[in-house]
Amino acid sequence: MDLSSTFERRQAPKTGRAVVQLTSGAGFCYPMYYFIPSITRDDRYLVHHRAEGGQVQLHRLDLTTGESTQLTHATHPDTCWHPWDIDGGRGVLDHRSVLNVARGQAIYFDGNTARAVDVNTLEDRALFDLPDDRLATGQNCCSPDGQWFVYIHHDRALYERIFGRSSEGRRGGYTYTRHLSKQTKLCAFHLDTGEHRTLICVNSPIHHVQPHGDEHLVFSSRATEASILYTDYEGGWYTHLRTQTEAGGNTKHYCATQRGIFYEANTPTGVIGGVVDPQTRKTVEF
Q1: How far apart are CA 63 and CA 46, in angstroms?
Q2: Chain centroid to CA 107: how far?
Q3: FRET partner for 22 with CA separation of 20 to 30 A, picked from 34, 43, 129, 142?
Q4: Is 178 helix (H, G, I), strand (E, B) or coil?
């Protein structure tokens, strides 16, 4: 990766390793959700959020020149990803944007409208609208081949009974109410044909989804099943890859790779790490 000389070079405390600071200024900058890509296929652009001045927008950072360009101009008044996030003001729905690496597009929600902006040309277009009684709630992904945008949404009425209709008073007390959900749907949208598929529908939150190749998906954080959940792009089923056990605890975060699905689990004696092969179910923990 050819990084611009304009970026500040530093050393990491304690280790002394080289560090390159990519962003600066008053804004709070962070990448796409950390299980999905944030850098384009040619290693030129970093697509990231910037929270500043009462709004959250996606920006494009040219890693070869250091030039930063705002990609989105979303106007929705409530960007917050409840109940885990804080209120960032207006703009893109926080933590729900996706970089489609195969197509060089950033896909985001401006309220209930899903949109795609070309990272190179900045051309922006609407993809589809969720019904008024639904709300995009999960952290989404694209298939590695770039054909499918996979997203999560659930019932708006139940959400508003829990959190209210405005952003006021939403910053505390969510430890248990966050698990209330009605008709949460894991869906796939084909970016060429416009086909919509409902893959999974449950009365429990789905926290995030990520691809495992071009045929399967990994999703998590169902309130009643603390395990690694696995399905495909046809849907209608899912299976457990690593189910909660009394001795082994429950999985929390996991990341799908070509070498297997890596995870962490909370146990009575502490946190353990592991990797599971979704085809053979072979598991190694440490």
Answers
A1: 7
A2: 11
A3: 142
A4: helix
